[in-house]
Design a protein that fits this description.
Order of helices and strands of chain B: HHHHHHHHH
Largest interface: A-B, 63 and 77 residues
Strand content of chain B: under 5%
Helix content of chain A: over 70%
Helix content of chain B: over 70%
Low-confidence stretches of chain A: 1-8, 172-176
Shape of chain B: flat
Largest sheet of chain B: none
Distance between the termini of chain A: 22 Å
Number of helices of chain A: 7
Shape of chain A: globular
Radius of gyration of chain A: 16 Å
Structural class of chain B: mainly alpha
Distance between the termini of chain B: 47 Å
Mean pLDDT of chain A: 80
Mean pLDDT of chain B: 83
Number of strands of chain A: 0
Oligomer: heterodimer
Radius of gyration of chain B: 21 Å
Order of helices and strands of chain A: HHHHHHH
Number of domains of chain A: 1
Number of helices of chain B: 9
């Protein structure tokens, strides 16, 4: 995302990253208010948008910060889930950001990022399941399958969100 | 609607404990709890006793702590029930116990440590500046966004008291997208405010005072207890 001020893009990128990390805390609350939080992976929406909007050198911070901030402020996801979620969200956001930087089409970046996130979820859940003594394969597949509605939502809504974001960013800044 | 930012002001020893030590001990406690094998789940009760004594020392109001732990406990219980139906009570105790202890540790840390102090502790541990800057700004932004989300949700509920799950999903997604756009518009104003104040990408925090002898002793003692329990778990 280009900067609008003389000091370059750093401050703009930090504020956009912080804003999207905050949305990563608030959007799940919005979904939980209507009882739809668990299966639609609402935290992933702003994080994926961050991947498409920010450069890789800053995008990873959104994936890392969001689950920890949410866990500290709202108690959700409960510990030790932020450890796992920060790994999968960093995978999601970095893939999207790298592909976006390589000028890949949005739908390619979103699909590849979601696919790699699923792989990361499977790997991390399997590793944790081994530690907890749960059947590994079953836990891994269950964790990926339970987020299927969320994957559909991400693929549909994130490109729309990105287009709207770019339209808003291109608008002349207001003075309010 | 939602309990956010549960720092509870106080003067207990845990409130006064150095935030760097709390961060270190919290990470050590969580790692030790997670490393306990399923067959030695009874060690988790010792970790539980340690946590309860820490809650006691923190002098936090029990009602508020229970209110915070309630929804988390429900979620953990539901997750653990799967193990019970699978016919493995030992796994149920292990999974639910570990999750509850880790969640309790997180609640205790958040309730006794101000976010600014936690950021300062992260900076003193040489976390990247970009990470602390994004965390600090995001923490401030959460409350503004949450306030806006609550107003949008109240307005939505007034307009659409009843809706099918599919319609509700569509509406909630639209609300989320609208919230994102409003945040994007606000971001430009925040950026200009930060630039006016001389923000250079590094979030400044007040320097932490040097840890006292009591801080060092308490940290060492907790680390030794966690280490000893971990060894017992593997013996």
């Amino acid at each position: 995302m280009p900067g609008t001020t003389g000091t370059g893009p750093a401050v703009r990128e930090v504020t956009v990253a912080a804003s999207l990390a905050a949305l990563g805390v608030v959007v799940p609350i919005l979904f939980h208010m209507v009882g739809m939080g668990r299966y639609f992976l609402p935290m992933h929406l702003p994080v994926l948008a961050a991947g498409l909007l920010l450069r890789p050198r800053i995008a990873w911070t959104v994936g890392l910060v969001t689950p920890w901030l949410s866990s500290l402020l709202t108690g959700m996801p409960p510990m030790p889930m932020p450890v796992l979620m920060s790994i999968e969200l960093v995978a999601l956001v970095q893939t999207a950001s790298l592909l976006s930087a390589a000028k890949a089409p949005v739908w390619v970046a979103v699909t590849a990022a979601v696919a790699l996130r699923c792989a990361a979820t499977f790997a991390v859940t399997t590793a944790l399941a081994t530690q907890l003594g749960i059947p590994e394969q079953a836990a891994g597949w269950a964790s990926v399958a339970s987020g299927a509605p969320g994957i559909a939502l991400q693929i549909v809504s994130v490109p729309i969100l990105l287009a709207s974001f770019r339209r808003v960013s291109g608008r002349k800044p207001d003075t309010a | 609607m939602t309990a956010v930012d549960v720092y509870i002001p106080g003067t207990s020893p845990l409130h006064r404990w150095d935030p760097r030590a709390k961060l270190m001990v919290g990470a050590l406690y969580t790692a030790s709890v997670l490393a306990i094998p399923v067959a030695r789940s009874w060690v988790l009760f010792c970790f539980g006793a340690l946590l309860v004594s820490a809650f006691g020392a923190s002098r936090l109001p029990a009602g508020r702590v229970l209110m915070r732990l309630g929804p988390v406990a429900g979620l953990i219980g539901l997750a653990g029930l799967g193990m019970l139906f699978e016919g493995s009570p030992a796994r149920f105790v292990s999974v639910s116990g570990k999750a509850a202890l880790c969640a309790g540790c997180g609640v205790l840390m958040a309730a006794t440590t101000q976010f600014g102090a936690m950021l300062a502790a992260m900076r003193s541990f040489r976390f990247p500046d970009i990470l602390t800057a994004v965390s600090g700004l995001a923490h401030r932004h959460v409350f503004v966004a949450l306030d806006e989300a609550c107003r949008m949700m109240v307005a939505y509920r007034c307009r659409v008291p009843q809706a099918s799950p599919l319609r509700r999903l569509r509406h909630t997604t639209r609300l989320a997208l609208a919230l994102c756009l409003r945040s994007a518009m606000r971001t430009e104003r925040i950026e200009r405010c930060l630039l006016v104040r001389g923000f250079d990408g590094v979030l400044r925090t007040l320097p932490l005072t040097a840890p006292t002898r009591a801080d060092v002793v308490a940290t060492a003692a907790t680390a030794i207890v966690c280490g000893a329990l971990l060894v017992v778990g593997y013996l």
